[in-house]
Hints:
The chain is α/β, with parallel strands linked by helices. It has helices at about 5-25, 30-40, 45-55, 60-70, 95-105, 120-135, 150-165, 260-280, 310-320, 340-350, 365-370, 375-380, 415-420, 430-445, 450-455, 460-470, and strands spanning about 110-120, 140-145, 170-175, 195-200, 220-225, 230, 250, 255-260, 295-305, 325-330, 335, 355-360, 385-390, 390-395, 395-400, 405-410, 410-415, 420-430, 450. It has 16 helices and 19 strands. The protein has a 15-stranded mixed sheet, sandwiched between helices. A two-stranded parallel ribbon has the order 7-14. Strands 11-17 form a two-stranded parallel sheet. Strand 15 (about 395-400) and strand 16 (about 405-410) form a beta hairpin. Helix 1 runs antiparallel to helix 2 (about 30-40), helix 2 runs antiparallel to helix 3 (about 45-55) and helix 11 crosses helix 16 (about 460-470). The radius of gyration is 23 Å and the shape is globular. The chain starts with a helix and ends in a 6-residue tail after the last helix. The mean pLDDT is about 85.
Amino acid sequence: MSTLSLLWLLLLYSLALLAVVDVLLTKDDPRAALGWLVVCLALPGFGALIYWLLGRNRIRNRAQAWKQQGNGMQARPRRSGFEPAPLRAPFQTQNYVLLRRLADTVTRRPLLDGNQLELLHNGEQAYPAMLAAIDAARERICLSSYIFDTRQTGRRFAAALIRASRRGVEVRVLVDALGEFYTWPRARRLFRASDVRFVLFLPFTFKARGAHINLRNHRKLLLIDGQIGFTGGMNISQRHCVAAPGRRAPVVDLHFQVRGPVVAQMQEAFIEDWQFASGERLPPLEPQQVSRAGESLCRGVSAGPNEDYEKLQWLISGVLSCARRRVAIMTPYFAPEPEIVRALCGAALRGVQVDILLPRKNNLPFVDWAGRASFAELLHYGVRLYYQNGPFVHSKLLLMDDHYAQIGSANFDARSLRLNFEFNLEVYDEALNRQLRYHFDCQCQRAQPLRWSQLQHYPLMLRLRDRFVRLFTPFL
């Protein structure tokens, strides 16, 4: 063997060794670590190249690097003057106390008393309330949306925001750069020649932060004068007006009007996103600036790859562990990772009624295929699955027993739980839970339950397709 061949072989094995060291130091899942070790050692050099391209979690590394550089995506919320709410009856039972303790640690935000939430169905209820709040604003409007369409609904919002800016209100609009591509012309054109501050979140560029398909801002927030907030699953999109005649591809969804101290936590989430996207630092809300409005205990949950914890995955696991009677899940995109599947099955095996409501026709079929690969395991251990017919349902709900709800922008897939920036609200409120359970149960009655026997007759090629797509769950 020539000297050149020896040097080349030495280089290949050196690259393999470097990759092996990185695998051992960074991969927490033993199965993933073993798989990458085999690839790196069996294919010296080439295996290491595959690992460096596909195996390293650059998404989390990049987001945490931005956080450490002080670029606005702070995983540790600032200390506020808001006092944590005591868990009053009926939230003093052990399961609620344990869930509260987990959320306190993971979110590092206090659970706040004195809030009020109003449920809004579709654009027919949500958009008039949001537009009325914009028209009544006196000092500051902050709007964050993944999609801001430029059809009728988007133009109505743009006109209202421009009117507010003309009467002296500070108006800031933050739209995700990828989400802006969902509509033409682009949303920014609606605000040209106005005083509205319009900024894109992570625009595509080969300079500075670069071009990223992941790390998208999926949060939906509208904040008015620090007193009123809106959040949930709805973008600013004409598709959510489902009752309009001749509407093509309508999207059913839920949104929430929020009043009370938790609006400050919603404002905090917007401020961090705005600072990251624009470089402008805004002052947070102080306790004396926010009025009490009701009896709901609420907490804002800002989640994203910049966090030290995968917050939403931890909280979902906590809810499934603490549930005593029932868990109800409504989500448009269900492609859970194995940890969530096991937690769902474990809750069902403990005797908890676990119901999952999904849309029959999905606008992202590959996500639906990946989720179907877990159906057999879920049904085998007692989880109940339902398919909703009719228009695509984009609603996102997680209900536990009679008093706990989690609402917001996050879906039950890796993109929401690991790759995107999301905002949810934890709500301890029996009346709201009852209202949401009634809505959930009404949808279940009209939905089609999925039976174990149906899966037995599922064509082999479709099962292979689902299993194959499931391999890519971490990236969907």
